[in-house]
User: Which sequence fits this backbone?
């Protein structure tokens, strides 16, 4: 009995922890189907009857903008951020990990130190720059910085992976006449696939869930993302439409959940190999 208990105890603890972690999602899904009067008055997880009209109201969107357009706007920003981070951060990481240039260690240390810099410190200078460039109320402030390797966390992640790759492959490529960029594109980049996938997954999730930055730069309702639409939905409907508000929350969370389940194998692989390399 003691052997059996020791064998099943970790599984039981893991199952309990899983239930605790999944409860907020279950509560969100159940609340999205509750009538308006039960959202704030009832503590029961399951509603007395299913209010499917909440989703009908949520699918109508806000300010005349459909949910399809809101999701499309969010997807456009997320995909642009993913492409920008993967390309720029991998280029910067290759320079730090493989190229030798003056003050490379100092610059790398300075780059890592920016991880401790709060985002709000640089927000005002960035806003002034984009405002003078006429890019406020466009998607450029949300996408363009990603092409400039501004995410030090991903640069550091890819650097640690690249440092563990064998240099003999790059040396062979140089003997064959490949330059630095050709070696990066044809040799190093394919071998860095696990770290690049990890960068893409985290960038997509963080960009999709971003609210503060999008609220600063986007004003026109037709350019709103799904997270901004949630705020507008509350402002528009006040406190009388909790059900549709939670229904729209479910719609906004669903792509992230599906995305995570599809790519979770690559996420675990990328984090594990990045930790072993370097």
Assistant:
């Amino acid at each position: 009995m003691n052997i059996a208990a020791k064998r099943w105890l970790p599984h039981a603890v893991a199952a309990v922890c899983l239930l605790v972690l999944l409860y907020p999602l279950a509560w969100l899904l159940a609340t999205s189907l509750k009538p308006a009067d039960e959202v704030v008055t009832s503590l029961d997880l399951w509603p007395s009857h299913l209010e499917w009209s909440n989703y009908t109201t949520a699918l109508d969107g806000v300010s005349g903008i459909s949910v399809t357009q809101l999701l499309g706007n969010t997807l456009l920003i997320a995909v642009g951020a993913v492409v920008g981070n993967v390309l720029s951060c991998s280029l910067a990481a290759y320079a730090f990990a493989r190229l030798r240039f003056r003050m490379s260690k100092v610059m790398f240390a300075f780059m890592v130190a920016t991880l401790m810099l709060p985002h709000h410190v640089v927000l005002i200078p960035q806003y002034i720059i984009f405002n003078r460039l006429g890019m406020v109320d466009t998607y450029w402030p949300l996408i363009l910085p990603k092409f400039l390797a501004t995410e030090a966390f991903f640069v550091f992640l890819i650097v640690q992976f690249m440092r563990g790759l064998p240099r003999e492959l790059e040396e062979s490529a140089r003997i064959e006449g490949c330059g630095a960029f050709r070696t990066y594109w044809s040799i190093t980049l394919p071998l860095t696939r696990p770290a690049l996938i990890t960068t893409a997954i985290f960038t997509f999730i963080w960009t999709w869930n971003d609210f503060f930055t999008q609220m600063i730069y986007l004003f026109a309702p037709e350019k709103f993302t799904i997270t901004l639409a949630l705020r507008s939905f509350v402002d528009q409907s006040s406190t009388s439409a909790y059900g549709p508000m939670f229904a729209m929350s479910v719609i906004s969370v669903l792509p992230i959940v599906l995305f995570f389940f599809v790519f979770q194998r690559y996420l675990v692989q990328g984090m594990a190999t990045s930790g072993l390399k370097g």
